[in-house]
Amino acid sequence: MRAAPPASLLLPLLTAAALLFPVAPARAAPAPPPPLITDDRGRALVLHGLNTAGSAKGPSGLPWITRADVAREVRAMGTNSVRYLIQWKNVEPSPGRYDEKYLDAVAERIGWYREQGVHVVLDMHQDIYGPAACAGAGNGAPAWATFTDGLPCTPQTPWVLTYLQPAVLRAYDNFWNHTGSHPELMRRYTAMWRHVAARFAADPAVLGYDLMNEPFGGTRQFGFFETPSLTPFYQRLVTAIRSVDRDGWIFAEPQALGPNEGLGTSLGPIADPRPGGPRVVLAPHLYPGGVDIGGSYTGAAKALVQAQFALWKANMPSAARRLGTPMWLGEVGGIPGSAGGALDYTADWLALADGLGVGWAYWSNDPGDVTDAAGNLTAVGRLLARPYPRAVAGTPTRIAYSAGALTVSWRDRAGASGPTEIWFPTAPRVTSTDPRWSWDAARHVLSVWPAKGRADHTVTLRP
Known about the structure:
It contains ten helices and 18 strands. It is of the alpha/beta class. It folds into two domains: 7-23 and 48-386, TIM Barrel (Alpha-Beta Barrel); 387-463, Sandwich (Immunoglobulin-like). The chain has a nine-stranded parallel beta sheet with strand order 7-6-5-4-3-2-10-9-8. Helix 6 (184-200) packs across helix 7 (223-242). The radius of gyration is 21 Å and the shape is globular. Residues 47-367 form the Glycoside hydrolase family domain. Residues 1-28 form the signal peptide.
């Protein structure tokens, strides 16, 4: 979802929902360290990347990128991950028939990321259910899985208001079987995900699977949707994926309305049957109301957005602790450059993510956002190309970026091996507690090997 409803619609909904989902209470003692997303060497991953791409919402289901574009992005921005969009309608164009040519094209593009050492999260994307729900306004579900029961629909401006059209609400209600008429739809979706996971389980570039972009409950929202419908649906998907992929990380999003703006979630625990411990990640999005549809980040509007930042900072980590999962910011967008405070907004949500120690995927890598028509980084792109630890051989205890300098501290953890890797845009001056380190000028990556007999480590990089 690229936008939030206008304040005239959003604020009453959020005010009512806040009664159900208050800000997480202050904790009397420091919170325990959250679980970590790890790589195959047990290193903690801090995922910085882009959503690829809005262009993949089109009929082909494929993004605009070439192999050269992927290499250029990694060189310029140091990204180590990508949230790669795919669509149900392209995977399964008719019931039970999977389009292997489409999946071959996806696999080819994943190969481009694999060449660059980038972790791929496959995102089953949808907005407004699917193109058949409302005159082509949406993306995601195939026409054969779209049941609007003859209700009307007119695409709206701003586009998110189309979610409230009768046909769209009914399409979602039928998918979630709120109507009792189409239990087969969730079964088909589950089988489709099992097929996709089986196809990519052995691909070392595929870190995992984002089960559904911004779930929307139709006529049921908040606790009336997430608890009785979304949680068991996710459980069904996890169980199916684990039958073909034991190790991939599974990213579960809360519903979009409310959590995107900082409210809490009633999503329940999701059991992971894999041996060796669960690999489920809470993957909320961040879209403060009004900002993404042209609002500014100045004056009273800025104060409102900052209040939503504070809500998100309290409620999303609290939900991750309750669920016992790592957290990843799966989508966060900018605001138009013509709107006041666009760069301040980007800097502030980056500081929010850094403060929480969570990775992110920015929306999006489509030309004109982080790069201009010539492929050069925009002002926003240059902000996103910030130093960060790509992989930490232990438990991160501090990640601090200020005035161009980055300090990373970590503690040894059983099961983690190999060097800590830190991306820095220029050759750095290095101060390290561990004397063995090397600089890869081609990748702009500093590798630090832990010294024997030392449990705590700190390295500082300066331009």
